[in-house]
Amino acid sequence: MNKISIICGENLITSRQALSLKIRNAQQKKIEVVNLDGTKVSLEQIRSATGSSSMFGNDKLIVVENLLTSQKSQRKEKITEYLFKKEFNNEIILWEGKNVDRRTIPNGLKIETFELDKQLFKFLDSIKPNNPLKPLTILKELEKTEAPELVFFMLTRQIRQLILAKEDLYKGAPWQGAKLKAQAGLFMPDYLEKIYQELQQIDYNQKTGNDALNLLSHLDIFVASL
């Protein structure tokens, strides 16, 4: 039986929580946890990690991050072929910060997908200058179901993507780029850069503890001031 499972999806908060829970459970059972960067790891490193027991002779939990969604390469192809065609004694978790193409995954592997709330995308699409009512209304609904850290992360990413699209530097799907460019065109020149810097400052203050307001309050104030 193949002991590989996949945790994926764009909801990074909940997918990370799921991974952290599995790691904690393994550590409580005195199972050694090996973390590997799937964007850089070599086939030799994978073979070494999966083919040997832990230094104490116990089972191991091997976590490989962002292998399946990394750029196409011979390295990636050889590693996935090795993982998907071989049987392992140790448990292997492939964690991906995006959705994976299920057509590339062999049948029988357990896949846990953590999707973003559709309301979150509506919120991001509603971000426009001098129009706070709609995004504030959606934000109030999101606050009931989503972590403020996730909403803040996605909002910051959206503003960054709007800046790239406005400058014709967005590298994603053409339809998405056109949509972002249209949204970015609603903002005055340099305004997107200004509010992006505001978000960066909020993030810094939150992480350093130099902030009298919580993240939820900052989200409300930021959206209301657009």
TrEMBL record:
Alphabetized InterPro entries for the sequence: DNA_pol3_clamp-load_cplx_C (IPR008921), DNA_polIII_delta (IPR005790), P-loop_NTPase (IPR027417)
UniProt similarity note: Belongs to the DNA polymerase HolA subunit family.
Top-level EC class as recorded in UniProt: transferase
GO molecular function terms listed in the Swiss-Prot or TrEMBL record: DNA binding; DNA-directed DNA polymerase activity
GO cellular component, one term: DNA polymerase III complex
Catalytically driven reaction(s): DNA(n) + a 2'-deoxyribonucleoside 5'-triphosphate = DNA(n+1) + diphosphate
Top-rank taxon, per record: Bacteria
GO terms, biological process: DNA-templated DNA replication
Keyword Nucleotidyltransferase annotated: yes
Native species: Candidatus Shapirobacteria bacterium CG08_land_8_20_14_0_20_39_18
Taxon lineage: Bacteria, Candidatus Shapironibacteriota
Name of the protein in its database record: DNA-directed DNA polymerase
Transferase among keywords: yes
Enzyme Commission number(s): 2.7.7.7
Keywords: DNA replication, DNA-directed DNA polymerase, Nucleotidyltransferase, Transferase
